[in-house]
Amino acid sequence: MSRTERLTMVEAINLGLREEMKRDPNVIILGEDVGVDGGVFRVTKGLLSEFGAERVVDTPLAESGIVGASIGLAIYGKRPVCEIQFSGFMYQAYHQLQSHAARMRLRTWGAQTVPLVLRSPYGAGIRALEHHSESTEMIYTHIPGLVVVIPSGPRKARSLIKASIRSNDPVIFLEPSSIYRAFREDISVDEEDIDSIWPLGRAEVVRAGSQFTIITYGAMLSLVKKTIEKGMAQKGWDPEIIDLLTISPMDTETIIQSVKKTGRVVIVHEAHRTGGIAAEISARIQEFAFLSLQAPIERVTGWDTPVPYFSRENVYLPDSNHIERAIENVLHF
């Protein structure tokens, strides 16, 4: 019988990392403070004592060096999981990702792959300083060759980190810091559990419905679900909720099937509005399901400004009122 534990996202990712390190001796962890301190959010806590300093490596403060070293390790047979302490510091390694990690398979005509995972906390809602709260995911979806994954809760975080480590492509694994410890989920701790691996590139229909489709990912899923529960109780909503999970490559088929069924769409994310994931989803819906639409697509997003300091970040972030207003707009168009 399967044994389960109630874990936070931090604990679930730690479990996934530990399982993969046990399964494959080529999996190594590297980054600033990932060893002795267990990572800035303690995601890698305990791994140094269990696997040793040759597999859990504290690096200098040099993001370009961390990612560059990971690329070399991956080419030579290792499966590095490198941590950048906050996504706002990933810019320092952008050239390594764009010029080398994403291109190596093409450059070598398939002879070399770069099976690395770059983990980083991202997003607002934790009252952090500048460069600690950005939602930069769209930057990396624009680079062919990179896979971009964003879990929405502990169970999916554990299964997606395992799938990412096993991928032969470089994966950007963005962890919504605002839900690191916000809630717990029951997770099977049996390594061979069939639900322990969620395929990259596949979205999840969190709730089936017929009235409208709401598409989201990351920390916004919890907000969407709370808003929907209230609307279902008070207004009789019957939504279909899609959690993207992988935003590149995106599961367009699941989105289009849902839109053809409901005809009404709301897209929610905390990143900037212009050029965001919602804009790309809207374009694909216009391309493949335009005649199914019964109302204009509504986007609920962050503003086109730098993420403000913590005293104003809640003004920047989408909230239940914004989501409810967008839903009412598509329902009563």
Q: What would a concise description of this structure say?
A:
With 333 residues, the protein is of the alpha/beta class. It has helices at 9-23, 47-51, 63-75, 94-101, 104-107, 137-141, 154-166, 220-235, 252-262, 277-289, 313-316, 320-331; strands at 4-7, 27-31, 56-58, 79-83, 117-122, 147-149, 171-176, 185-188, 204-207, 212-216, 239-243, 246-248, 265-272, 298-302. The protein folds into 2 domains: 8-188, Thiamin diphosphate (ThDP)-binding fold, Pyr/PP domains (Rossmann fold, 3-Layer(aba) Sandwich); 204-331, 3-Layer(aba) Sandwich (Rossmann fold), CATH 3.40.50.
Provide a descriptive summary of the structure in words:
This protein has two domains: 8-188, 3-Layer(aba) Sandwich (Rossmann fold), CATH 3.40.50; 204-331, 3-Layer(aba) Sandwich (Rossmann fold), CATH 3.40.50.920. It is α/β, with parallel strands linked by helices and 333 residues long. The mean pLDDT is 94. It has helices at 9-23, 47-51, 63-75, 94-101, 104-107, 137-141, 154-166, 220-235, 252-262, 277-289, 313-316, 320-331, and strands at 4-7, 27-31, 56-58, 79-83, 117-122, 147-149, 171-176, 185-188, 204-207, 212-216, 239-243, 246-248, 265-272, 298-302. The chain has twelve helices and 14 strands. 36% of the residues lie in helices and 20% in strands. The chain starts with a strand and ends with a helix. The strands form three sheets. The protein has a seven-stranded mixed beta sheet with strand order 3-2-4-5-7-6-12, with helices on both faces. Strands 9-11-10-13-14 form a five-stranded mixed beta sheet, sandwiched between helices.
